[in-house]
Amino acid sequence: MSVDITRQELYDLVWSEPMTHAAKRFDISDVMLGRICEDRHVPRPPRGYWANLQSKSSQKRQFIKLPLPELPEPDIGFSRYMSMEYKQREAARTDIFDPEDLNDPVRDPPPPFQESMDDFRKRIEAAFPDLIEPEKIKVLHPVVQKVLDYDLTLVARSKRDTYFYDRPQYQDEKGKMSLRLLNGFIMTFEALGFNVRLTGRKYFHFYVMILGHHKEFHVFIKEYDPSAFERKKLGKVKRKTYCFSWTGEYEVISAGDMFYEFEELNLAAIKKVIVDFVMKGEKNYRNWVVSRYEHNVEARKRAIERREFEIRRAAEKKRKALENLLASREKLMSEAVTDMNHAEKIRELIETMRAKAASAKRPVKGMKRWVGWATHHANTIDPRHMSLESFETWASKFKLK
Predict the structure, then answer these.
(1) 77 to 73, 355, 375: CA distances (angstroms)
(2) What is the rounded (10 degree) CA torsion for 264, 267, 269, 270?
(3) Which end of the chain is more exposed for a tag (fewer CB within 10 A), N or C?
(4) How far apart are the C-alpha atoms of 33 and 3, rounded to whole Å?
(5) 302, 279 contact by CB (below 8 A)
(6) Burial of 40 (0-12, 13-18, 19+ CB in 10 A)
(7) Against a cut of 0.70, is the pTM above it?
(8) Distance between CA 271 and CA 54 in Å, rounded?
């Protein structure tokens, strides 16, 4: 997030009214405005400044209004040009479709890029603004000043304690060259509209937000000290070179497309680093457009396969459910018929035993009780003797619609 005013205007604003009021002008929070001030190295009033200013007490605290660091006003045209470049491309794409939405038809593949990579480089180099040469920058960037201030504390500590193991790094010629190198890159990054930040209190890490990528970078000086033979026979001399490296948190600095070594620190060297980064991003973007379309096509195929599988699975589930339902109904009917036949057999047995008892010349012990129970049992299991309420309960088990 940024605000479309100059650093001087932002500085005047935050020192003229509280941050909560100033932030409303841009429809952002005071916390966000504070971050913008920090990113653009604009000092803001400390906590309690406005309360103290409005206090009627005769013993007010004396706050010092910090001056605005003299930094070049960033020319955000290049960064805005690059960001708008990709926003317009994305808005004009006709190959984008949602692979999971089967109602969204598959689009035609992305057309070939009309502009060659060489022509793209020429266009980017032409859009690169005219900036001040790093060696002509006399003011230190606040990030570099913070690094130098910490180094000065190491100088003081090492003077007090001979055995202090942390030694200053930027006091000799090599260290001063490293600071100039760091200052040149940071000043140029921010002049192009790319924010730079510093992390760490003892071991510093430098990051730049460039074209949507939060990239860590390193700068250092490499020394070459040829042997006596190389000096005499090959004419090599002792020299120092300026080195720059894009690197991730765990990447090792080594020669390659992320590493640069320059004999001189000038704008052309820094321009090459930035243009190469843009070119690498362009190459990745073009590859991503093609690979993303291919990925979406494959994802659509998988989505269709999943849908067909779900349809088949639903049909199979429905078929099995119908089979189970029919089997359940058949079982209920079979059990009813079995119980009915069983009840008839019990009644035949009752009649048979009654006939035998009638032909007997003496009373049959327990006959009356057995006949009563057997008749009741036959009526109980015979579905033809169930009540209407029992029939409704039994019929509901058939799940008829």
Answers:
(1) 12, 117, 103
(2) 130
(3) C
(4) 8
(5) no
(6) buried
(7) no
(8) 49
Tokens of 317: 């589930």
The whole-angstrom separation of Cα 84 and Cα 87 is 5
311-349 pLDDT, tens per residue? Answer: 999 999 999 999 999 999 999 999 999 999 999 999 999
- Domain extents in the chain: 1-68
Residue 347 neighbours by CB under 8 Å, 6+ apart: 375, 378
Enter the tokens of residue 385.
């003797």
β-bridge pairing 259-262 and 239-247: antiparallel
pLDDT of residue 73: 63
> 3-state class of 233 per DSSP?
helix
Q: Which amino acid is at 129?
A: P
Distance between CA atoms of 284 and 384, rounded to whole angstroms?
Answer: 81
| pLDDT higher than threshold 80 for residue 60 | no
Say what the pLDDT of residue 14 is.
92
